[in-house]
């Protein structure tokens, strides 16, 4: 039977080569519009719900229909359908239309509205002192019929620690069909809570700062989107009905509303701004909360700046386009705090690699969240546009989008105390004590890296100048009391090379007198030649009385052969490594532990409920199963490949990681335009196997944002599903992709697909040392008997 997704994609391919009348039946197309006049392109971009403007290429990419294509043509643009992106968009719509009982079908990494609410309710029940959930308003549907959702506000802060505290306000998924923002925000909250008490930065942030988050800012609209509709707005039907109903909430905020042709007065348009400023209850809930929680720190004149020491930060997270944006969005004029906004924007963009620029550089907008928060209250305000796709596959989200943006959000939380000042100072990295556990009165050395250079210095027409990078002039350690608290004592740290003379320095300080038993926090803050200090980073120093110590020792070996293994042994938050002979030793505080033992190429071992009593010496031998390879390709022409190879993919001598051979989709110095070619495996049987792990060496030298390397899988002959995507990364990297969806499948296929657009080429996507390994009963059966009383982790790393 032909799958619905395949049938729809095939239908699409027929439609785009047919008459324009047939195209009118397609509700969603991704089109490229080539322009010669930038002003026209920017004006048109503001009319579409999703627009991507590439000034350098002279291309406007939008999601629209045949009517929208005609609008672009009438304006003088050369319009064509982007076949690859449209096919992927339609596949995403089909997957979303198959909503299951849990999560979004085909996009299991993204929680539904209900799952998001359930997750935060569970967290609040588990951490009642740290997390509170409240209703701050309701949706249009709820306010008119009682059949909608509340607008839920999450407040993360330790209520047992007195304020006042600086605040970060996070709004995600205000546009319904943007799935990644809400998940990113939810995982950020989860990550901080999971680290509380174990990770020093998570702990001091929750103790001394507040994070306010509206994770589902448009839940009624999101439910429509979860059912497979390309829904953007809320669901207000008073002005327009059907698929065009609703108000664009991010054009409805009461600042410069409807004044600059940055939104639409047409009720059925994607960027309809609503009948009046702040007309929608979803908008009003956010406005009321922001006004109540943040002081007004800016005058009423457009030229009034917020004071340099203003506190508080506002972030609105969207998708897609890989951008970091700041006010203004309605004018080319630089905001009064423009240089400081640009400095912080370049800091954010260092983490995620996105393009940093003033919001109007994308296209003019008015009535937006960030212009409201900055314009009315003087808050440093930003919009992140996550990722590169309308429906970002879970593999791409997990591998490419999640971690860099979690790091950016962590930085946002750190600098929210003084967002116009702290980003001008250096970052503090890798704060660590020489030992993570000490006996009372032992001396301890604390080290850190101080770095002033971590800016994304990309230049655009609206990015402003590059940020200034200064020489590090010093760093201080604060033990137990943070630098902003009364009684804080700065302990100067010394440069590792003897002098402070560069923008990157290693620093250290030895506390020779030792510390009493207990858990101590050490804050480190750096400063540069401009006089600016940056945000703090911290580490815990845990000290125990010798009478409370436990010694865990032993060895790690491969089961069956007894070969010693270099492994990581983790006991709760404490970690050690075995040496080349497999032996290890670790001092721990007495208590109950979960042990995890991990070694490259082996199945991870988990032992829970291990009780270690004070004064004991515990000896253990851990035996690990090796992983079983089910598919391998070393990119070696001397060995027959198991791939079905689609030209121009070929093995290229001297292009591999280390100088050998590698797969590339080109026979020359650069790939061709308009490629869509694959390396495809035969069917692979995973029956009896668990935790598949795909690893490969990748050098993804492509035009960033337009040409992509993609890893995809297919089950039982069904549609291909993307699990990884790369672009614009010309360095060799070892990629590891857990693929739990393949576990137990009797018929699965794997492919590496390369696609390019119609202009600008690079060397291409090089692949080497491809290996697909698994664990599980079928793998263990090949190696011997299961060690007694041991459990192997389903989902190794």
TrEMBL record:
Alphabetical UniProt keywords: Carboxypeptidase, Hydrolase, Metal-binding, Metalloprotease, Protease, Signal, Zinc
Signal peptide residues on this chain, from the entry's feature table: 1-24
Single biological process term from Gene Ontology: proteolysis
Database matches in CDD domains: M14_CPT_like (cd06226)
Catalytic activity: Releases a C-terminal residue, which may be hydrophobic or positively charged
GO molecular function: metallocarboxypeptidase activity; zinc ion binding
Database matches in Pfam families: Peptidase_M14
Enzyme class: hydrolase
A GO-annotated cellular component: extracellular space
Residues annotated as the enzyme's active site: 385
Cofactor(s) of this protein: Zn(2+)
InterPro entries from the UniProt entry: CARBOXYPEPT_ZN_2 (IPR057247), Peptidase_M14 (IPR000834)
Domain (Peptidase M14): residue spans on this chain: 109-416
PANTHER family found in the cross-reference section: OS02G0119300 PROTEIN, PROTEASE FAMILY M14 CARBOXYPEPTIDASE A,B
Family from the record: Belongs to the peptidase M14 family.
Name of the protein in question: carboxypeptidase T
Annotated source species: Pseudomarimonas arenosa
């Amino acid at each position: 039977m032909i799958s619905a997704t395949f049938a729809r994609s095939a239908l699409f391919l027929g439609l785009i080569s047919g008459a324009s009348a047939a195209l009118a039946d397609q509700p969603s197309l991704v089109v490229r519009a080539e322009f010669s006049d930038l002003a026209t392109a920017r004006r048109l971009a503001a009319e579409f719900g999703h627009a991507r403007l590439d000034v350098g290429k002279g291309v406007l990419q939008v999601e629209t229909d045949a009517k929208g294509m005609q609008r672009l043509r009438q304006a003088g643009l050369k319009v064509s359908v982007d076949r690859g992106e449209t096919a992927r968009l339609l596949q995403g719509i089909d997957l979303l239309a198959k909503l299951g009982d849990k999560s979004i079908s085909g996009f299991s990494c993204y929680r539904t509205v209900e799952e998001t609410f359930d997750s935060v309710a569970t967290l609040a029940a588990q951490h009642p002192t740290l997390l509170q959930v409240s209703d701050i308003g309701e949706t249009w549907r709820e306010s008119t019929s009682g059949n909608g959702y509340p607008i839920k506000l999450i407040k993360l802060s330790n209520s047992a620690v007195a304020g006042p505290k600086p605040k970060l306000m996070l709004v995600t998924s205000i546009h319904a069909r943007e799935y990644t923002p809400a998940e990113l925000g939810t995982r950020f909250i989860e990550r901080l809570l999971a680290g509380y008490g174990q990770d020093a930065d998570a702990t001091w942030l929750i103790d001394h700062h507040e994070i306010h988050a509206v994770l589902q800012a448009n839940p009624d609209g999101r439910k429509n989107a979860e059912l497979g509709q390309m829904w953007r707005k809320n669901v207000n039907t008073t002005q327009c009905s059907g698929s065009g109903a609703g108000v664009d909430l991010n054009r409805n905020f009461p600042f410069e509303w409807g004044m600059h042709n940055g939104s639409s007065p047409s009720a059925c348009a994607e960027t309809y701004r609503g009948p009046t400023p702040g007309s929608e209850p979803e908008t009003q809930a956010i406005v009321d909360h922001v006004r109540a929680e943040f002081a007004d720190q800016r005058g009423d004149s457009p030229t009034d700046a917020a004071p340099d020491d203003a506190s508080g930060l506002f972030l609105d997270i969207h998708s897609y386009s890989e951008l970091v944006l700041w006010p203004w969005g309605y004018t080319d004029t630089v905001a009064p705090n423009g240089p400081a906004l640009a400095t912080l924007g370049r800091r954010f963009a260092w983490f995620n690699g996105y393009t940093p620029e003033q919001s109007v550089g994308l296209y003019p907008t008015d009535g937006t969240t960030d212009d409201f928060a900055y314009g009315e209250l003087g808050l440093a305000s930003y919009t992140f546009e996550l990722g590169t796709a309308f429906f970002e596959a879970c593999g791409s989200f997990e591998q490419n989008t999640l971690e860099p943006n979690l790091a950016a959000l962590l930085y946002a939380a750190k600098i929210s105390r003084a967002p116009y000042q702290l980003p001008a100072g250096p970052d503090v990295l890798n704060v660590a004590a020489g030992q993570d556990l000490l006996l009372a009165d032992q001396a301890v050395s604390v080290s850190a890296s101080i770095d002033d250079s971590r800016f994304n210095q990309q230049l655009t027409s609206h990015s402003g100048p590059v940020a200034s990078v200064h020489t590090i002039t010093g760093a201080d350690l604060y033990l137990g009391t943070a630098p902003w608290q009364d009684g804080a004592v700065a302990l100067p740290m010394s440069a590792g090379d003897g002098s402070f003379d560069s923008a990157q320095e290693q620093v250290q300080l030895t506390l020779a007198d030792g510390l009493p038993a207990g858990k101590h926090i050490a804050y480190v803050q750096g400063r540069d030649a401009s006089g600016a200090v940056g945000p703090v980073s911290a580490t815990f120093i845990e000290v125990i009385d010798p009478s409370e110590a436990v010694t865990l020792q032993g060895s790690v070996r491969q089961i069956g052969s007894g070969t010693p293994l270099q492994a990581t042994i983790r006991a709760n938050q404490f970690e050690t490594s075995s040496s080349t002979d497999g032996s290890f030793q670790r001092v721990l505080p007495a208590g109950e532990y979960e042990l995890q033992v991990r070694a490259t190429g082996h199945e991870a071992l988990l032992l829970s409920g291990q009780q270690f009593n004070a004064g004991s010496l515990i000896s253990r031998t851990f035996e690990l199963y090796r992983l079983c390879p089910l598919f391998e390709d070393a990119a070696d022409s001397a060995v027959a490949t198991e791939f079905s190879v689609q030209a121009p993919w070929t093995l290229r001598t001297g292009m591999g990681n280390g100088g050998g051979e590698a797969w590339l989709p080109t026979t020359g110095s650069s790939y061709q335009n308009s490629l869509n070619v694959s390396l495809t495996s035969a069917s692979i049987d995973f029956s009896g196997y668990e935790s598949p792990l795909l690893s490969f060496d990748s050098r993804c030298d492509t035009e960033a944002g337009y040409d992509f390397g993609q890893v995809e899988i297919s089950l039982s002959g069904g549609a291909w599903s993307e699990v990884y995507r790369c672009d614009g990364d010309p360095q060799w990297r070892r990629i590891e992709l857990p693929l739990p969806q393949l576990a137990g499948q009797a018929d699965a296929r794997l492919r590496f697909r390369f696609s390019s657009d119609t202009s600008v080429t690079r060397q291409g996507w090089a692949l080497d040392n491809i290996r697909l390994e698994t664990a599980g009963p079928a793998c263990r059966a090949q190696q011997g008997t299961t060690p007694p009383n041991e459990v192997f982790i389903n989902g190794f790393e």
